[in-house]
Specification:
The chain is of the alpha/beta class. It contains 10 helices and 8 strands.
């Protein structure tokens, strides 16, 4: 059984990958997308040059939803949509690198979309869990792959329902997820479920991915699944292989329209390998 350790995620990365005594799924995903971006962020520790407005928007929505569930955890009444919007706006005041906005776009231009999304969330089933909220933004750490560093992860929400333990994650998206997209996005939940079992020993674990769309008519879809041992084994194998590549210092750029358009290290990449 994995040991749960609650701790803050380190702000400053170690000097090199070999000195890291943990690994996160976000780091694995970063390496899969672009090994050089992994190097800039986790090995060289370069500050991000910029951040896209869509990422800040998603983070601010996430903050508002977290505020909702934290109120429930504390035994208080759920906040109103207006309260959620206030919390969302505070998210734009966090300490970010320069934000990249599209033409004729600024922080206030997202307010209408945020209000629609948070109002839709507040009246949805997602906002009313059927069990007891156990944890919000919980940092978990434990060894789940022999021979590899501990996995460090942060779970959006853990709920103890009568018949199962729910490990939940929520995302914002431009469009509704296809079943294939939803399945791909639950990989990290498969591993986090391994770390969270001590919250309700012996219970079945259900993985919930809830997606809020950034559309005129907001949709909220919940994709639920249980941890399939074969998928868990495959995901662990992927993590193991990526970690071996990181330890071997296989760092190189992986240029693509998707990777490069929103990359926070574009200037550093242009100068590489200088």
């Amino acid at each position: 059984m994995s040991t749960i350790v609650i701790e803050a995620e380190p702000r400053s990365p170690p000097v090199n990958a070999q000195e890291r005594d943990y690994i996160s799924f976000s780091a694995i995903r970063t390496y899969q997308a672009c090994p050089l971006q992994y190097f800039f962020r986790y090995v060289a520790g370069l500050p991000k040059e910029t951040i896209s407005s869509s990422l800040v928007f998603g983070s601010a929505i996430h903050r508002a939803i977290e505020h909702h569930f934290r109120r429930l955890l504390e035994g208080q009444a759920a906040p109103s949509p207006d309260e959620l919007l206030t919390e969302y706006k505070l998210g734009w005041q966090d300490d970010y690198p320069p934000i990249r906005f599209a033409k004729d776009e600024n922080a206030a231009s997202f307010d209408g979309l945020a209000q629609r999304m948070l109002t839709a969330f507040a009246i949805s089933d997602l906002a009313r869990p059927k069990g007891r909220v156990l944890a919000i933004e919980e940092t978990l750490r434990g060894q789940i792959i022999p021979g590899l560093p501990d996995l460090l992860g942060r779970v959006d929400l853990i709920v103890d329902e009568p018949d199962c333990l729910v490990i939940a994650d929520w995302k914002t998206s431009r469009a509704r997820y296809t079943p294939e997209q939803a399945q791909d996005s639950t990989e990290q939940l498969l591993l986090y479920a391994e770390l969270a079992r001590d919250f309700a020993p012996g219970k079945q674990v259900r993985l919930d991915l809830s997606v809020l769309t950034k559309t005129k008519e907001v949709s909220i879809d919940r994709h639920s699944t249980v941890a399939d041992p074969l998928r868990v084994s495959k995901t662990k194998r992927i993590v193991e292989q990526v970690w071996q590549a990181i330890k071997a210092e296989h760092f190189y750029p992986a240029p693509s329209t998707i990777n490069c358009g929103g990359c926070p290290y574009r200037d550093a990449c242009r100068k590489w390998p200088a």
